[in-house]
Amino acid sequence: MNDQIDFGNFSNDDFADNPEPRCPCVLVLDTSSSMGGAPIQELNAGLQLFPQDVGQDDLAAKRVEVAIVTFGGHVTQVQDFTTVDNFMGTPLTASGGTPMGEALELAVQMVRDRKQTYKDNYIKYFRPWIFLITDGAPTDSIERAQQFIPDGENAKEFIFFAVGVEGADMSTLATLATKQAPLKLKGVNFRELFRWLSASMQQVSGEETSQETRALPQLTWAEVGG
Q1: Helix and strand element counts for the chain (H, E)
Q2: How far apart are CA 97 and CA 131, in angstroms?
Q3: What pLDDT digit, counting tens, does each position of 118-174 carry?
């Protein structure tokens, strides 16, 4: 069952005060027991850097919205979509199995719901990103995800990225990430990954919403072709 955590009384829908187009990103993070120790520590450190880096760009700070879904034993919506000034960065802990399929279903539904919220409030938006990070193989079925992730990308509903940490089943990730091949993280280099993600979101959010995304910053954290 999906869980939701309430992190306080703030409004994600401050569109009257901030009518800028939104650039939404869902981080789908593996917090299963195999992520214990250095991996979860470095993941938390990277998550702390991300809003700080985005916040240095005044336009990106108004436009980039981040949501977090974790899957470790069960699936949890840790953070609903919010601009970086409201990003909580609550430390994550590692435990349990790897219900990746359920986590991806929640992430896609969150994207669809958020896009509808934008439309209801006449807010323009960039194509959402769904960013999966995992170090293992799923412990639930991903058969549905293997269909709706490629279908969603083909329909230009969202852009999907998959990152495998040491021990990840890269061949399985390749059945999900069919547009952009999955990338393997160098060691536990989460800080560089989130710096890249921050720079990428800043670049995308500075464009016109009707434009296709230009080339993203150079990869420094991935074993490209590895």
Answers
A1: 6, 7
A2: 19
A3: 999 999 999 999 999 999 899 999 999 999 999 999 999 999 999 999 989 999 999
Structure-block tokens of residue 101: 């399929």
What class has domain 22-205?
alpha beta
169: tokens are 């089943």
Given a contact cutoff of 8 angstroms between Cβ atoms, the answer to whether 71 and 95 are in contact is no
The answer to whether the predicted template modeling score (pTM) of the entire model surpasses 0.85 is yes
- Residue 154 token pair: 């083909």
Residue 146, exposed/middle/buried by CB under 10 A (0-12, 13-18, 19+)? middle
DSSP 102-121: HHHHHHHHHHHHHHHHHHHT
Q: How far apart are CA 153 and CA 66, in angstroms?
A: 19
| Strands in 21-171 per DSSP E | 23-30, 64-72, 74-83, 129-134, 159-164
What does the pLDDT look like over 77-130, one tens digit per residue? 999 999 988 887 789 999 999 999 999 999 999 999 999 999 999 999 999 999
Collapsed DSSP state (helix, strand, coil) of residue 90: coil
